[in-house]
Amino acid sequence: MDSSQAFGLAHLWAQSDNIIRAVALILLVMSITSWYLILSRSLRQLRARSHSGAVEAFWAAPDLDAGLRVLAERAPESPFEALAQQGAAAAQHVRRHTHSNTLGGKLDTDEVITRALRKSIALSTAALESGLTVLASIGSTAPFVGLFGTVWGIYHALVNISVSGMATLDKVAGPVGEALIMTAFGLFVAIPAVLAYNGITRANRVELSELDAFAHDLHAWFATGARIAAVPGAAPRAAEVATGTPAGAHGAA
């Protein structure tokens, strides 16, 4: 057996004990899970970017039904379509079941639409944050799992030395190699997970800020029949989120 085979992964796996193998399998499962979440969320972000302009196309539509069709075509199954659909359904429900033109009736209408928009934003927020807890947990715990494999590998090496009575290279190199590889595996799992978590979190903050602004415009339109005009010189909320400025509560009104 040549030296490359003696210190290869197959040889290290063959000579390792059950604990080292369990650590390696745990890291493998964590890596597969994190990469699945990274790829699935990256594809979702790509689809979300393709929806750019759908909101302005909605406001450019001649009526509400046409605007909803535009969102269904240009941003299907997006939080923006769900928000508009929820607001339209709430407004239609109020028109059907409210027959009073009193001040109390108008306040109830405003409250129903507000609650519907907030509910839609809450559901969209939960969907956007799905999987982030797992990704953060993998990024924070994988180095320690690898470190445990390192410690156990060194312990394994010391046991072999004590049994053989000789601190020869062939008795030490294998277990120490296991220890170093476990450390490398832990970092290989953790680093992509941490970077992806930070990137996805930032993208979610931007999207939720845009969704929050769309909800305020929808609420104003359902309440007054007109969209709130943009204030000249006002900083875009998405830019504030991108720089880390808190966007505030993601409510509708």
Automatic annotation (TrEMBL):
Regions crossing the membrane: 19-39, 132-159, 179-200
Chief localization: membrane
Entry-linked InterPro entries: ExbB/TolQ_transport (IPR050790), MotA_ExbB_proton_chnl (IPR002898)
Keyword Transmembrane helix: yes
UniProt KW Ubl conjugation keyword: no
Pfam families: MotA_ExbB
Membrane protein topology class: Multi-pass membrane protein
Subunit architecture: The accessory proteins ExbB and ExbD seem to form a complex with TonB.
Protein name, per record: Biopolymer transport protein ExbB
Species, as recorded: Thauera aminoaromatica
Lineage, broadest ranks: Bacteria, Pseudomonadati, Pseudomonadota, Betaproteobacteria, Rhodocyclales
